[in-house]
Description:
The protein has helices at residues 14-23, 58-75, 98-108, and strands at 26-28, 32-38, 45-49, 83-89. It is an alpha+beta fold.
Amino acid sequence: MVQRFTQAHRLKKADEFSSVFLFRRSKSGVYLKIYYKPNELPNSRLGLITSKRIAKRANKRNYMKRLTRELFRQNNADWLKSYDVVVKVIKLFTHDNYSEIINEFKLLTKSFYK
Length: 114
C-alpha cells in the first residue's frame, strides 16, 4: 500500500500550530518533543519545528525534518484515530542516530496505536 505525505497531511498555518500547543498534550524524549491533539479529519497532520539553535546548517535541519516526516508517513496509518502532531527537534541528530530516532518516535507515539 502506497502512503504519501501530501499537503493534506501538513499543518501549515500558525493557528493550526497554536491550537495543538494550546491543547497542552506533549511527550518528550532525548531528541524529539511531540505535541499532539486529536482531530476530526480523515487523516493525521504533521507540523515540524527545527530551529537554527539546534543546527546552524540548513542541510542538517533538512535531514532531521526529512527523517521525521518519513517516520510520520510510515507510522500514522496504524494510529487509532487522527491527530494533529507537532514534532519539535530538541537535540541535533544525524544518520549515526538513525535507530535511536526510530525507537524514540515509536515510543513517544505508542499511545496513538490501535
